[in-house]
Amino acid sequence: MKQSPLLLSGILLAAMLQAAHAAETVSAADRAFVAKVSQGGMFEVKLGQLASDQGAAQDIKDQGTTEAHDHGLVGDSLKSIASDAGITFPDTLNPQFQRQLDGLKAMSGPSFDNAYVHAMEVIHVKDGAAFATEAASGTNPKLRAFARETHRIVERHLGELHGAGPEAK
């Protein structure tokens, strides 16, 4: 069935208006939030995978598996919301996080476990603050709801980190 050029133009215009509206509901702070926490989340996934493979203590391996799983799901959700809002989502770690990950890859034993817990605590505190701010003052309703829910996950992970590793024994 042949579509009329007028109908196709109307469909295209409606799609463009919807995309423009989505972009309008995203502030510079929303974009900065996505940029920041997408990097932190990717780092947590990669570091969690590393800990599950190279952790010395079983609780570090288990915690790494949890981090990789949870933040993988969180990252997928954020990527979907960001895409719908017209926000570019990175697919690689920035140089700072990559250097940090590379440094941790070179470690082993209890020194790796301690460095892992410390790195995870630091990123969870930073990202937790970003989630709390976005939940309170973000302009995009989907990002606000995402931030509110994810902040609870970050807080739970911080509690788990305090019980992990050689220093907790």
UniProtKB/TrEMBL annotation:
- Report the transmembrane regions from the record: none
Q: What are the DUF4142 domain coordinates in residue numbering?
A: 29-160
What the entry lists under Pfam families is as follows: DUF4142 (PF13628)
Q: Which residues form the signal peptide?
A: 1-22
Q: Which UniProt keywords apply?
A: Signal
Instruction: Output the superkingdom of the source species.
Output: Bacteria
Which PANTHER family did the record assign?
BLR2558 PROTEIN
Protein name per its UniProtKB record: DUF4142 domain-containing protein
Species for this entry: Lichenicola cladoniae
